[in-house]
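User: Hi! I'm working on a homework problem where we have to compare a predicted structure to a textbook description. Could you give me the structure for the chain below?
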Amino acid sequence: MKRPIILHPDPRLKKLSEAVVELSDDMRRLADDMLETMYAAPGIGLAAPQVGLLHRLIVLDCVKKDDEKSRPLIMFNPEIVASSDEINVYEEGCLSIPEQFADVTRPAEVQVRWMDRDGNEQSEGMDGLWATCVQHEIDHLDGKLFIDYLKPLKRQMITRKMVKMKREIARESS
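Assistant: Happy to help. Predicted structure tokens:
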């Protein structure tokens, strides 16, 4: 089931998410819904706070080429356990901040540990777009947005655009 994505500014996007203690069928269903929502958007990552739920759950699939097999990842309680000194700059966007993009500097490689949908612990080294995406989504679980990496003026400008966009959406739906 596709879920609505909440838009910045929204206080839920700034809150700390709770660890997933019990891997229930409801949590697995939420993960499946989040993948469906992410693909429909379309996007390459989505965190539970973006659908209004403060659980430490992210989904991602950074395969962008049509001729490559998709690789959906569901991560419960993901954490970065190591990161490289080498950095990368990627132009990031966010499904909760549509049509806004900015360069963000992050570690080029990370080692991530998480629990999969079957409750098994997983660990993987990621680089390139995967590393950027997983860091971006884990930030959501900690109440941090990609615009928080920007200079205050640029961040305020994007927030003002989003407030205006939300007002227009509200006006159109009433």
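For your comparison, note the following. Strands lie at 45-47, 57-60, 73-83, 87-94, 97-107, 109-115, 121-127. The longest strand covers residues 73-83. Good luck with the assignment!
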